């Protein structure tokens, strides 16, 4: 739009303003102005250039009346002032100010509005709207001024006014409550320092403005810091804006490129400076004065700041005091700014992400522009960036990451590239090369600072972490991580220094001090013999640390270690760690953990860390493994009571020093120091072994298939730990095995063990031979049998043979662990046998074919299904029999009515059936056996059982129970081998019977179980002995105990007594036995009576319910006996038969007894 | 012998039959020994990687039912010599997998346990001494030319009994063949002239024989408790210098350590005995195997992770191979 057209439009309103000078008229003019602007905008849309506005031409005309009003009416109303300010803003917004006078006029009037008339240094009390409008107008005015005006604005003559304006604005920013005013004031400050335009200015302009602002720096920076750190309650926009402007102002003044021009020999190190002076002195002596004069003149020409420029000379006439920028000033300012930087740094934890983002930029700019002037702040800025790298907001994270990346690439860029860096225009060539040279030095300096900082942080870390302030520790670790990641490749040199890496590792291991106070650390497997039970690991404690809880810290330490592993000299670092491991016993666990973290990333074959050869890697792993598996670490005592598990030894074994291995200890003799470990020490040991196992796993994971060559030394030991009773260690070892399996490309631990038999069997056999030195060696075999499939069975035969041999030698001292292996073996053999028998139906009877098919079956569930079918078949048979027997008595009763003969018949029939069945079965077996040779494992089981028959006389309870378990497993394994089974059973019978009279009720209970199993497999053979030797004592036992237990309540403690428990056990196991024994009527009657006597309301509930269950079972098989027994429990009465022919019977019951309801139901059912 | 003898550093398993012969595979230049080959009674050859302890290769070297591998010999990584009882001597190309036969030499009716021996006379001539024809004779072959040079038959075969062992010896630069007969005769044959240049007799029935050229030390193991130490002088006279008595009778193999300071015997009593060459004193008795130790072998140099010097390997009838790092 043409300015004339606009003039025509605006003239009326403008004249009215001049005439009236009222709020209304100014508003009118503003509206008109708006119209013009909209018109112009639409016109611009059609073809305007978008830059020059017609308002710009009319600005003086438009503003003249209002300025006049301000001048003539110093006390006009606030609303008028506000309107005037907003009008000024509206006009200036659209104009370019080329005339300094105009600028000065407007500027002065604007700030006059804000100035307190009485004391000019204070802000006048006026409406908030007015202040905001004035500040807005000032902002627009400053952004809109042209380069000539700008030069004068920042010139010395205008400086007092500018200073005053800055002072007022700062006062507004700090003192006002309104967020809008604060924001506006900060924006105005930004405009005053030409924040947006600054990067586009010419070099000389930049330097000019910077020079001016050196005077304002203290005030601005302090004021803005005050605003920024006012607290979380203020609007985040204010804080963010304050940070941005602070950053701009400080960078503008303190940027190295500016100071380089201002300060001679800026940024040189002290040594260089002193060298220079020395050099200059010698030169002074050598050269003639004249020559020196010439030199000085020449230099003077080069450096314009040595001699005053003509312009400056002019300015110097004026009495404006300007700060002299020299080395001293820079140093002092930097020191003060350092304090402000520190206080701003606290905003890292500000709740709003926008503030944190500003802080990232703040740190980045400070670091990139002022690395030399603000040397002390470099670390702070790096730490801020590094800390915010893990921010929860994506924007902040990426900004920080980008900044760090660019800093790192800047640092590691080779020197020549810096020359190509874009410099400010008009820069003399000489200065350019000088700058690049300086930059190289700069980088060097920064590196040095970083190195020192790493050293300092590593020194402080132990002290800080002991304060247990997670936040503090985290920021410190992050800072350390930041410094290290910025150093990057250079880290190698840093870590090459022994003292550096030593300190760092020590600090980290101190930070990682593990908490070993968790009581669950000592948890042991409840039934270590139940191999099928999955280890319950959910409630196991994780690794917890003494000095921190925050998981971020651990993660950060992990990253730190990753850096160490990646950039550091792995061999040297690991050697140092191992050195620490050997020399400081109290930080062993931590060092192991540290090593794990370092190696996790240090030796990753897949990632292919360059410069790392296979030999180097192997060397590292080899020495690590050696250290981790060293006896003092790996075989540390894991049990408070060494006799507790797996380390059970007799005192006799500690006679020779050799025999006193790490775990062969006797708790009874105080001479053995190791036996007297405190709980704390043992817990610490558990954690230590756990860490060592994790380290092994990390090595395996790192090396992958290359780990194979270490298997022979590692596998055996890890398997041993997997068999430990301590849940935590066992679990860690199993995990390690899984890792190794994965590294070796095996699907499961079982597969690993199967394929690695050559690796571990020799160390194992050696250990089994020297059991006194390696008391827990049998655990290896146990784990092996536990995990591996049946193929290993054949391979372990020899080893089991060895176990038997050592059992012969050590049947007193270390029988327990050996027996456990035997138990595992017989169970494995039993499993194998069940698999074989279940396959017999489908596969041809040739043994070798079965074996082949076994190997071929890929589906591991096969066994389970087969077993299920087998069970189902058996259940089906029993059910059928039961059904027959339940239905049979009715018929028989109708026919004859004589109970006893019926029983006899039934028994005979059942016997016949059984006989036929067993004959058939035997025939089958005979057929098979004729073709088969006795396999080695069956021979071994027989041998084992024979040993058991001797050892059952041993007096120790645990051993006895274990032996009984072995016998049980053996019987199962021999189920299909009658010829082998029966002689052994015969041998076992006598000791078993002796154990039946054991005082220990637990043993008695187990014996009952064993006998029940024996009877199941070879009922015919043992039936008579059982009926004469087993049943009567049990029945009489129940009879006696039943009376005792009557009327006992829980609070009496009777429920905890062995007598109670044995009753329960016997009642539970009896049905199994009765089923195959088929006792005679009198014995049965006795038994039923005894059981029925338990069905009393006074009996303990559990006994009663067990007895009821047994009675129900008996009622299915022998309903009459049960009925009779129950009748006797009823009150005396007369039973009338349905037929009149029969006489009624008088039952002399035991009197009115209170019977539980279930019993009555059962009785009624039977009636 | 106050300290108890050490255990093997490792035991290799996986053989399907008694291990009857052993040899370390010579590594490519500048490397440590890493492989061990073993032959079994049922004709299989197994090669283990000593670093990972894994079985690398297994194949049957026997043509027929599977006869004993009596002798294994290796001097380059690419070649392996085997002698199968009743069948003959074969040279295998190890570059193939499974290895293929490069050359075959007949035993010519020899049925005993005697082992063959190979020696390089000079750069282009390699000689094979192989038992046969018959029970008493020895044939000498030029390996490169596949040419039978001569058959060495004693003048009075009856009195010598059957051939027990053959062994090339180098005395003062002259290569001769020592042939050990059942009668106890040790005859030093000049293969060029087919004449006996020296002879001595030991009192017992010899089973095994080994000779160290630089130390001029020969060991003869017999069926009895006696072990004879022999030496060969510059003028090719062979003589017994010492007679050692061991506890249990019967030796199946004897070797001298490559540096000649020790020699080792493998006994029917499943023990390995080590003697010093200087005074012929027994210095260690190693017991690990459960059955007869059938064969012994020494590695030429270090074996990584197992020994810093020569590693001793012993194969036994219990189907295992034990590795010993002793007196290194």
Automatic annotation (TrEMBL), chain A:
Q: Where is the TTI1 N-terminal TPR domain?
A: 7-392
Query: Which residue ranges does the record annotate as region Disordered?
Result: 286-310, 409-442
Transmembrane regions: none
SUPFAM superfamilies in UniProt: ARM repeat (SSF48371)
InterPro entries, A to Z: ARM-like (IPR011989), ARM-type_fold (IPR016024), TELO2-interacting_protein_1 (IPR052587), TPR_TTI1_C (IPR057567), TPR_TTI1_N (IPR057566), TTI1_rpt (IPR049362)
Q: Which PANTHER family does this one have?
A: TEL2 INTERACTING PROTEIN 1 TTI1 FAMILY MEMBER, TELO2-INTERACTING PROTEIN 1 HOMOLOG
Instruction: Return the protein name.
Output: TELO2 interacting protein 1
From TrEMBL, chain B:
| Keyword annotations from UniProtKB, A to Z | Repeat, WD repeat
Concerning Gene3D superfamilies, the annotation shows: YVTN repeat-like/Quinoprotein amine dehydrogenase
**Secretion signal: which residues?**
none
Q: Which InterPro entries match?
A: WD40/YVTN_repeat-like_dom_sf, WD40_repeat_CS, WD40_repeat_dom_sf, WD40_rpt
- Spans of repeat WD: 286-328
Q: Specify the domain of life of the species encoding this protein.
A: Eukaryota
Protein name according to UniProt: Guanine nucleotide-binding protein subunit beta-like protein 1
